[in-house]
Amino acid sequence: MISHPRFSVRVAAIGDAPAIAQVHCDSWRSTYPGLVPQTAIDEWANLDTRTKGWTQALTTAKSSIWVCEQAGKIVGFCSAGALTQAVNSADSQLFALYLNQDAQRQGIGAALATTALQALDRGGHKLVRVEVLAGNLPAISFYERMGARLVDSTQFEMSGFPLVELIYVWDDLTKFRT
Asked: 54-84: per-residue pLDDT in tens?
């Protein structure tokens, strides 16, 4: 657990699923307009669907999930874990990192990402990937400041709309050790 004067990071519990889902949906609604079709945002940012998904994720524990609390409220979360098959030589991935808009630029994202990267390092992982939507300049800048480097891109469709995802990797997790 990371404790900071303004926030704390801890491992998520099953009871956190509704709050994680709320952050996830709110973040999609504030981040992706103009980058992703509105129909996809409306479909993806469905609170009931996201709550069920995060409840399942927290129950099955296929990845590790952390939350950040500020003034007793969950304002961000992060999910990371091993890949079942190496992709771009990466053996693990930062699957999700989302914050409420008003929780950004306070060090919360860095605390969550660092927590995840430290856990992956302790687990023996050597190369961690993260996918970020092309055009999401704040996220791209964040990952680059965190030391990730661009290695690839991939195209996919969402609601019939072509999108590009950038693949970043961290190949030296030792700098996140404490």
From this structure: 999 999 877 799 999 999 999 999 999 999 8
So what's the architecture of 2-176 in CATH? 3-Layer(aba) Sandwich (3.40)
Phi-psi region at 91: left, alpha or beta (left = phi > 0; alpha = psi -120 to 50): alpha
Helical spans, DSSP H, in the chain: 17-31, 38-44, 47-60, 108-122, 137-145
Buried b (16+ CB within 10 A) or exposed e, 139-153: bbebbeebbbeeeee
Which tens digit of pLDDT belongs to each residue from 80-119? 999 987 777 889 999 999 999 998 998 999 999 999 999 9
Distance CA 117, CA 123 (A): 10
pLDDT, residue 45, reads 92
Q: What are the tokens at 153?
A: 């891109």
Token digits for 178?
């404490």
In a 13 Å sphere around the CA of 9, the CA atoms on its Cβ side amount to: 22
Is 0.85 surpassed by the pTM of this model?
yes
